[in-house]
Structure formats: C-alpha cells, structure tokens
Write a structure and sequence with these properties.
Blueprint: H1 5-13, H2 27-45, H3 49-53, H4 59-70, H5 74-88, H6 93-104, H7 108-126, H8 130-137, H9 143-163, H10 175-208
Length: 209
Amino acid sequence: MHPNDHFDHDDEAAPARDDDFADRPSKTQLKKEMHDLQALGKELIEMPDARLAALGMPEFLLDALLQLKRTRSHEGRRRQWQYVGKLMRRVDPEPLREAVASFKVPGAKETLALHTAERWRDRLLAEDDALTQWMSEHPDTDAQALRTLIRNARKDQLAAAAAQPFEGAAERKGRAYRDLFQRIKSALEAAAKADELADQDLDEEDDDE
C-alpha cells in the first residue's frame, strides 16, 4: 500500500466544516422571504380573476388563488392561505412581482386588458378548441354569435391574404375581425367588474366578522 493512501480515507470521513453551511439561508432570511411571499400573495388576490389568469403563472397556483378568493369562512381562508404559501415557494416569484408592479402603473390595467383580449382573439381564430375553453370561463357569452364572428373573421383573414399584391404587404383586417376583438374585450371587462364587486363584498363580510 502506498504510504499516503490513508489520507484519502481520512478526507472522506472528515467532519463537515463551518464553511460547508455558508450558502444555507439563515432563519432571518427565510422569515423575510416568507413575509415577502405573503405580501405578494395578498397583492395577487386583489387582482380580478381574468387578469390573474393573464399573468401566466402555473395552473396549480392560479387554481389555489382563485379558490382562496372564493373561500368565505375565516378558518377556510386561513387554511387556504397556508396552502397558497406552500405553492408559492415552488415558483419563481420575480415574474409575478413584475406583473403586479406593472398592473399598478397608471394605464397598465388597460394595457393588460387589451393584451388579454388580443391573445383571446388570436387563439379563437387559430384554435378550434379555444371556443370551448372561452365558454367554460365566460358561460354568459352568446356562443352562436361568437361562433359566427370567428367564422367571418377567418374568412376575412383568408380574403385579405389572397388580396395581398406581394409578400410582406400590410394585411387589412375585416370588420368581423374588429367586432370579434370588441366582443371579447367587453366580456373580459364585464368579468373583471364582477370580480371586483365580489371581492368588495367579501372584504365587507370579513370586516363584519
């Protein structure tokens, strides 16, 4: 055996040094992160459901936040808050913080609403199953009227593409395309208003307890 072979064994069995734990967060840091996540969670549930869904967060967190907004009992809300807190530790909070900050900027609410309506319009035109999802989230929509707008807007798109004199020319949108956007935008605004009123009612009930 080589005279220095025993040192390799000793190195493996050596106890961990203090600097091995240097990268571990302190209790104070963990507590601060927890409070920051709680504050972020409160800001998130103050947003209307439609705008929460537009933030692009994981579905499991979105579902938990929506359930929290619907929970009315004090004990039920406490348990759901704990659950939301656990879920938020599984996601990167920075994109959510940026989204909340943008939402608070004057004019950002309107911009976000427009972007959400644009995304829905594009999805409804491109994906056949998007209409099913829209109706599940907005059951008060006149499905037949919306289906007709989608069909006509698709025809307008095909006609505009065929009429372009050369590739890269500006594409002119038809009336159905614009009407579809306005129908979606109005439905989202109505849903957001209903969510805000529901949140106000819930806050008043909490104050009464």
